[in-house]
Amino acid sequence: MKNQSPLQEIHKKGIYGDYDNKNEQDLLKVKEVSNLKILQIAKYKNSIVSITDLKIDGLALSDKPNLVVTNKETRILWSSPNTWLVTSENADILSKVTSIFKETDFAVTDLSYSRAIIEIEGKYSKEVLKKGCPFNFNELNKNNCANSIFHGITLTIDLIDDSPEKIRLFALRSFGESLYHSITDASLEFGYKSI
Fold first, then answer.
1. Distance, CA of 142 to CA of 68 (rounded, Å)
2. Which of 61, 142, 156, 173 has an alpha carbon within 20 to 30 A of 68's alpha carbon?
3. Which helix (H) or strand (E) holds 184?
4. Which pTM was predicted?
5. Can you give the residue ranges of every domain in the chain?
């Protein structure tokens, strides 16, 4: 069976929107991310295991809301109390996680093929999201995350960098095309390069 990315048929490379008389470096960049493994880790309510000693690729789980801990290839997003989203370029991350987080205390779910991932980069990235999301983006900083909606589509927002702004958006695969069209439509005003 061949895996097909959620946006394979609609994500077309090119330059779109108000790009006339603008330096290409100043345009927003929009791309699909399809090489990430995504795992959800949820600690059971009756578990007495402490998370302080459990690490993934040297990263400890955070109990601080909206915080992301990261290294070169792995990011761990606080999703809700006792729930985290692990994203990684490491293809073996699932076996690492399941060896550390015992099934008697944690539920580990592979969400890799159930999500569409869109990355938007550039100084107007937050402005694009403000057009359809009620979240206060002035409070979102580098290595912060949030769960919200964009034009009625539930998504997870991960602010990877703030200079320039680089934001990764995760949505259910079935809403990927709608989210992509909403994001690219909101980006037209600033001009964007689809890469």
1. 9
2. 173
3. helix 176-187
4. 0.95
5. 14-35+114-194, 37-112
> According to CATH, what is the number of the domain 37-112?
3.30.70.1520
Rounded to the nearest integer, the mean pLDDT of the chain is: 96
Burial class (CB in 10 A: 0-12, 13-18, 19+), 124: buried
The alpha carbon of 6 is separated from its chain's Cα centroid by a whole number of angstroms, namely 14
Tokens (6 digits) for 140: 């979102």
Phi, psi of 139 (to 5 degrees): -95, 0
Fold of 14-35+114-194: Gyrase A; domain 2 (3.30.1360)
**133-183: per-residue pLDDT in tens?**
999 999 999 999 999 999 999 999 999 999 999 999 999 999 999 999 999
